[in-house]
């Protein structure tokens, strides 16, 4: 019988699928790794499982313990899923700008959500960072994963995402493209692919315009709308030595591709996925990659989390993306 013992056993082993319609003029194979097929709906399920395993082994998490993390998004879902299956309490602090839908998902998985004021920055005791630090100190048996510093984030991609890509492409992968948030996805899988291919795999980072990773000058760092990627500091989970080149993408181009992936490729994915595909296609065109190139692009999460934003014409128009809407919206009768 092929019955999994628990939903958490089904993390990883996500499929690779070829892009056929958004790749005009490109001879290379562009294949995407569809991480929304993970049980919690994103690549972050991978890091949650390994971070909790490691904390159990090191004794940081004991039976009945509590996981506390400042996160509103995919990492929270992954951690909540693993926590409930293993009997831990999970508490997430989230700024009040985070939509009620996202908070509802965390609560649905059994986590407790503490909402903090968005205008309270790091150092302010009311901020979501500081509240999570205080709870981690005050609650007996509390463990704070700290995904930005935790080496088990990149390691989860070194031990799962990287080997999966290598095997799924019959060792033919030539390029690996991923967005950079904490940096774990690109650093972990990129390191594995470089090692196993003796340096033959080129690792391409994808970064929002305004993020520090691709800024030529610190003055260029500014706000952007793509979620889950880019930073204004360098986290420990990011290893720049693994990355050969970074292709930066603006919000409009990322969102246009995100809408095209749903409409033309049947892939309802998030904005960081659209961004990564834009980087991959630009890189392939600029470097004139031939038909022997196999470019694997990691798509971190599902478009269902962005129905009220990227896939909502009014939100797009209100946020200055009217041209994108004009080019990609379908007429209704
Ligand atoms: N896209 C989304 C939607 C994410 O939530 C994340 C994780 N922050 C990433 C991309 C980037 O992954 P990583 O943190 O491993 O760099």
Automatic annotation (TrEMBL):
Coiled coil: none annotated. The keyword RNA-binding does not apply. Residues 7-301 form the Tryptophan synthase beta chain-like PALP domain. This is Cystathionine beta-synthase. GO terms for biological process: cysteine biosynthetic process via cystathionine. CDD domains: CBS_like. InterPro entries: Cys_Synth/Cystath_Beta-Synth, Cysta_beta_synth, TrpB-like_PALP, TrpB-like_PALP_sf. It holds the Pfam family PALP. It catalyses: L-homocysteine + L-serine = L,L-cystathionine + H2O. Keywords: Pyridoxal phosphate. Belongs to the cysteine synthase/cystathionine beta-synthase family. Its EC number is 4.2.1.22. Its cofactor is pyridoxal 5'-phosphate. GO terms for cellular component: cytoplasm. It comes from Bifidobacterium margollesii. GO terms for molecular function: cystathionine beta-synthase activity. Signal peptide: none annotated. It is an enzyme of class 4 (lyase).
